[in-house]
Amino acid sequence: MPTPTTSPTRSNAAARLERLPFSGYHKLIFIVVAIAFFFDSVDLATMTFILGSIKQEFGLSTAMTGVVASASFFGMVVGAALAGLLADRFGRRPVFQWSMVLWGVASYLCSTAQSVDALIVWRVLLGVGMGMEFPVAQTLLSEFVPTANRGRLIALMDGFWPLGFITAGIVSYFVLPQFGWRAVFALLAIPAVFVLIVRRIVPESPRWLEHAGRHAEADAVMCGIEARVMRSAGVAMLPRPSLQPMAEPVRGRGALREIWSGAYRRRTTMVWLLWFFALLGFYGLTSWLGALLQQAGFAVTQSVYYTVLISLGGVPGFLCAAWLVERWGRKPTCIASLLGGGMMAYLYGQSALYGGSVALLVGTGLAMQFFLFGMWAVLYTYTPEQYGTGSRATGSGFASAVGRIGSLIGPYVVGVVLPVFGQGGVFTLGALSFAVAALAVWVLGIETRGVALEALASEEATGETQLYPAVADRSS
């Protein structure tokens, strides 16, 4: 086995990670984390396709249907907030694994629900598991990937969300008419066994281990990573890392206080506004897409088919965003995707309002999802880059939690707005939400492209950054 060339007494984990050549090992970590993210996304997207059937079976009003659609988002608020705090306190890996177990069990319990009250309870529990997984996945991956590849890979990871959305639609298309919505939930509990693969392949973040003062463990993990990268890349030696003092753990200040400290206050305000309004608009619309098509006169299978077809626009959307975040930058890509999504959401609503043809509905829907799934890719890339190692998971988790409050409100608001203002009013509301999110990024956002996490963590309120490794992580 090749021997790594670094000494833990001379170079920290960040320096050792940043100098690694991108290799098959990085790709393996990406694939494992992204597949877990994909399975979670399938569960989250399922409600879009089965909400109409649940509404019909229980004879629900539109407002009560909105409550059912929002239940998982309530759980995600709790899960996302808890996950960030737990991951910064106990590590990324155990929280990531337990989140998968929780959403798998809860998905099965949803299949057993014989009343709407029971379904709401299990959907809340399912939301807790999903809310825990999303921010920890982005934090974990961002801390393994070198700066030059970080934005592209995290954006591509988020691309598994539209693939999960499409998969949920395909499963619903074949299973829902024959076996009902409970069978859909039961099937989606099975992928939770993927946690066994995660336990075997994905190590704890050496950046977090070092920040927590567990230097021996961080060095052991780093030696293993370096050996695997050398084998994968076919090299006998690695470049010498920057010589920096070892990071020491922070004492006396919690991660939640840190994200509201002077260095991070502006960033936290920006990401909270961004997540809240972006997710309010997105889930307010997508949770109801299938039900709105059924209300327009389409059969269940037709509504599922057209919703899946519209979602295909998300595939080129996230691929385009994954390219633009490294070429154009995070901030302009985020603003453009939000404004584009808002404009197309408004046009989609107008075509539905005035009885547009199926071709027009699908065309505007494809364009809407192109921009909105591109938006998701930037969100997951941009958010963990705002914070240092000691508060990265907490910052990402609370941003996601605030977004889930928007997710929670969105479907319910649609249920209230729809009878009064119709589908045109619903999509106008979504468009305005995306516009507010874009304004927050434009006014408060910083550019993070090409800057290492440690340099971004050390950035002062002036907004000036330096490229790694000139600045050490002050949060350490």
From TrEMBL:
Protein name stated in the entry: Putative metabolite transport transmembrane protein
Topology versus the membrane: Multi-pass membrane protein
Subcellular compartments: Membrane
Species for this entry: Cupriavidus taiwanensis
TM stretches of this protein: 28-51, 63-83, 153-175, 181-198, 271-291, 303-325, 332-348, 354-380, 401-421, 427-446
GO cellular component: plasma membrane
Keyword annotations: Membrane, Plasmid, Transmembrane, Transmembrane helix
Listed InterPro entries: MFS_dom, MFS_sugar_transport-like, MFS_trans_sf, Sugar_transporter_CS
The keyword Transmembrane is annotated on this UniProt entry: yes
GO molecular function: carboxylic acid transmembrane transporter activity
PROSITE patterns (UniProt xref): MFS, SUGAR_TRANSPORT_1, SUGAR_TRANSPORT_2
Chain segments annotated as coiled-coil in the UniProt record: none
UniProt xrefs under Gene3D superfamilies: MFS general substrate transporter like domains (1.20.1250.20)
Major facilitator superfamily (MFS) profile domain boundaries: 29-449
One Pfam family per UniProt: Sugar_tr
